[in-house]
Every structure is written in structure tokens, then in C-alpha cells.
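Changelog note: in this version the structure field was regenerated for every chain. One regenerated record is shown below for reference.
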Amino acid sequence: MPNRLIQSQSLYLQKHAHNPIDWWPWCEEALAQAKQENKPIFLSIGYSSCHWCTVMEGEAFSDPAIADYLNANFLPIKVDREERPDIDSIYMQALQMMITQGGWPLNIWLDPYDLVPFYGGTYFPVEPRYGRPGFLQLLQALRDHYDQQPEQVAQIKGQILAALQPTVDLAAGANLFDRTLVEQGWQENAAVLAEGRSSNRFPMIPYADFVLRGYRVTSPEPWSDQIPEALRPSLQRGVALVLGGINDHVGGGFHRYTVDPTWTVPHFEKMLYDNGQIVEFLANLWSAGAQDPSLRSGIFGAINWLRREMTNPDGGFYAAQDADSFTDPAAAEPEEGAFYVWGWDELESLLEPEALSALVEQFTVSVPGNFEGVNVLQRRSGGTLPDGVTEALDRLFTVRYGQPRAQLAQFPPARNATEAKTVAWPGRIPAVTDTKAIAAWNGLMIAGLARAAAVFQDLPAYQLAAGAAHFLQTHHGAGDRFYRLNYDGQPAIGAQAEDYAEVIRSLLELHQAATALIATGQIAPSEADQWLALATQLQAEFDQHLWDADHGGYFNADDRPDLIIRERSIIDNATPAANGTALGNLVRLALLTENLTYLDRAEQGFRSFHRFLDEHPRACPSLLAALDQFQRPVLVRAKAETLALLAQQYLPTTVLRLDQQLPQGAIALVCKGLTCLPAATDQAQLWSLLKQCQG
């Protein structure tokens, strides 16, 4: 007998619909029921492609004894963090305060009367192991603690609630034009990227991208042929991503993270948000002068994967692909990485000896393997792969997908485990794809595609990005509101700050890419204007609903009685914090529209967050990147040919605008903030002015 989650559109919630636990979705009725029955709330948060969420669903959440006790003594609520990042953010912060680390599944217990947590953790096994308590014993102890020690529960809750408040009530800062804060932030965040800090390796693109900005200021010769020292931390991260096992060298696209410090063995899920950020970061690296062919290969491998496997018929992008997949239709449970790994015997049977030898020369392939007896492909060095290796990878592609690469334009998703096991796949059984569209994640991917299109003058990448933007415009609006999610063509859940911020930024990146491609003759100037107009329209809605008029900055979500605080996100995680992106957008909008209201609003936000930036620069690189944009804003007005050349360079605080009416003899007009510099009459003078603006 399924539980209430069977009615949900969320793939993650549906995966729990047949648990014996009497799950509720997060709703007013569930919260009222918990109070009426005086039951603590057991809140469990995860997402569909989360490996350990899947494990706990199959273990503890499927155990009848655990379900009986949980149903009798708690009110169990399931939340998909991809649907409700506002709820996830609050309780993830609380969890990190309790146990000094976070992650998913996020399991946390709340007082039903005020929704403040008093205990939390991540994965819990059925029986005690891994240094973690058995889940039933934990539930029994927590219910006893809640009933017998209310004073201690109240004390814990008070501490948690007090600690959450600084993210809402931050003091105003001082001099916003003192560049010391940003420059110290580059050093602090470069240290975060340092090798060997953790057993797991995550892309951490907000950090890598911010550190990359520092090279143009701290390097004595930006845009030179020599790789400057300031570029190395970001370059090392980019090389690790494109060469490592985190990159799917056969099918393209990047996995979420690796479980080792050598970038070898990934957790195999692929998230849209990672791939969007990585594509943009690698394109920025390329434009900064790091033009190893492996970087370009990583970029266009991800774009090809996106086009083939992650684009819906209307042009929007799917959310994620699972880590686990079935090895055959009769298998009871999927296996982690099965779609992606290669046994030595299999490679010997598929490849000619010369091809296998060439593959071994370029990749870490061996008889014992590097992951549970099989091989995750990891490149040994950069450069261009020899033709024989490329042919070997094409052969592996054909085996995995059942068709040659050149013939496979679209690979349909397996939308759930049933489809994965019952469709007659021509190759391996693929991992399940979560086909919902998330506005913020689509925005991140559109921005990455747009930047790649500008840097490489690649019209197909631009068209893929434009198609997704049109999808958001058509399918994520209803009435006068923009929506966060789209399930099979139907919008759901009002947009949150990250949705507005990332989609607005993607529209600005599309404006810049279109501006850069006008010289090709395939993009009309009016198309660039269209993206800017859409960005200003969405910004007006963002300002109306989520701007904090008292303090500055943007609230994460609408004011709701079921949220214990109203957060303003400034701390980066796997994705940039909403306010970091949003304040940078405001500066760019001010430059492009000459509407200084945007600049005033950005200044108010920076003053509100200044103290936190000063005290915790490692927590908020995207906000520091926005402050860099605020301190060094540059507008270049030029004709299409000059703009196309500029777009291929690394100029992160510069925005480009088409101007067909330049003064006689001028090739560009450069404005540094609110000050216009002398007209540039040749390329050398233009580069000199741009270099001056970086200082």
C-alpha cells in the first residue's frame, strides 16, 4: 500500500512512496498533525540522484520494525531539496552547527510547536556500524530524550536558533572601495583549492572561478603567452577536472565528485549544476590563456552529453542522472557506476591489442582496475589524444549506448527504475535521469554554454543555450510569477532567489554571447537586445518579491509561516550563493542599461554583507567576485568585429555593448565605472586601457 508520496511529482519522493513509513510531504496539514498528536517531526531531506539517500531508502526506510516505531512516535516528513532549497538551507545550517559537517540524506528532528531542530545527522544504518548508531535504537533514544528531558531539548533549540540569526541580521560595513578585502580573498580561497585538503574532491567552482579572477590583477602581464603564477591554482583545478575520472571520457559530462584525493573514482551521479559551472569555468580558463586541448575536449564533451542526454523536446535541461544503474533487467538492485566502468577482460574483448595498448598508454587502465576490480578511465596527461585512442573511446561509446557516436543525436532518458529495467536498451542499461527542469540549474548551464559560445565563437553552443532560455520563458511562467520547477510541461513552486539570480545571469551571458556573435552575420543585434530586455523584466519581479528593503540583499524565498527564519543566502556550496550572483547581476545591469538604481541596490547589499565578507572570506567567494565587479566595473562599446575579439579574452568585470556610432577614428569606447576614458583608436591602445581598468 503506497503512502502519501505516491501523489508527488518529485522523483525523489516517489522513490519513497512504497516505504512502510507513513511519509508526509512538507505541508500545513502535516505540521498541524504533528502538533495535534504531540509528535516530534522527523524531517528527512535528500534528492533523487543521491547515492546514500538511495541506500537509506532501501535499508532503514524499508525496515518494518523501524517503520512501526517511527510511525507511532514521530511525524515523518520527506522533502526533496531540489524542490525546496529554502527548507534544506535552514536545516543544513542547523545540522552543521550540531555535528560540524553536512550532507545528504539530511535527517533532522524538530519540535512540532516551533519547527526548531534538536538533533540531526546524515546516513544512519539499520544496525550500528561505521561509528554510527542503529536507526531504531536512535529513534527510541530521541523519543525518550524529547519526553523526559524537555529542559535540555529547549536549551539545544535555543542555541541553534540563536546561531541561525546572524545569516539574517548582518551589520552594515565600511569602505566598499577598499580592494584589500577582495585581494586577501584571492589568497584565502586559493588555499581552499590546495591539493590534499580532503579525501573527497569536489569541483568547488565558485572558489576556482573567483581565484581565477585574481590572476588578471596580480599577474604582471595578463594575456601574455606565459602562464603566470597567479593562474596556477585555478589551472590545476581545471586540469584535474578534465583529466580525472570525474570526467566521463567516453560519453562526456562531469560526475559530482570523487571519493579520493586523486580525482580518480567518482560518485557517478551527474548534476546539471556542476556541468554548467564547469563548462563556464573551463571556457574562462581557456580565454585566460590556458589553451591545452584537453580543456576544450572537456568543454565540448560536456556539451555533447548535454545535447544528447539532458535536453528535453522543448529545449530545457533535465536535472540529474543517478550514480547507480542495473547490470541486467533481472537484477534486484542497481550497482554504482555500472554504466561507466570497464573490466579488463571486457576491454580485451572489445579492442584490438594495438588499440588497448594505446588506451593503456593514455589512461590509467589495468588488470586489477582502480574501482572494485574494474576501471574508471583517467587520463595520464593533457594534450591531444592520438587517433587510435579516440577510435578506442568511440568503440566503448558504441558498446555503452548501442550506437556509434556519429549516429546518436538523442539518447532517451530512463525516467525511473521500471523504465530502466523494461526498455530494450541497445547497449548498457542507463542510469535513471531526473527529468524535471530546475530554473536555477538551467540558468547555470545556459550561462556556461553562452560563455563557451563567446570564447570559441561556437554558434551551436549558443543555439542550445538560447533554446533552454526560451524554454524557461515559455514553461516556467504562470500569471505574474516565475516558477522554480517544471514537471512534464507544468510549472511548480514559486521561484526562489537562486532561480531569479541564475536565470538573470544566464540572460546577461546570452546577451554577451549574442553580442560577440553578431560579427558572424548569423545573429541580429535585436537578438542581443531581447536577452537584455528579458533580464530587466525578470529583475523587476525579483526585486518586487524578494528584495530586503530594510537591510539590502535578497531573501531566499517568500515570507512563509513554516520557515523558522527568512534567510538571505551568501555562503557558497556546490552552487554560488544567490546574493553573490544577484549583486553581480545588478552591477552588470547598471552598466548595460545606464540605470543607476541597480548600482544603488548593489551598494546597499554589499554594505549589509560587508562584515561577513571581512570575517569569513572563505565562505563566500561568489560574493567577493561580485564585489570585484562592483569595484572594477568596465563597459566597452564597440562595433561587432572588435566585440567578437574581446569576448574571447578573459575580462570578468567587463561587459560589452554594440555601438555602431563611434567617433571617427575610434575602434572602442571604454568606461571605467562612471568615468569614460579617451577613445581607443587601435588595438594596442584598447588593451592598454583595459589593463588600466583591472588595477
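Spot check on this record: The radius of gyration is 25 Å. The chain has a mean pLDDT of 93.
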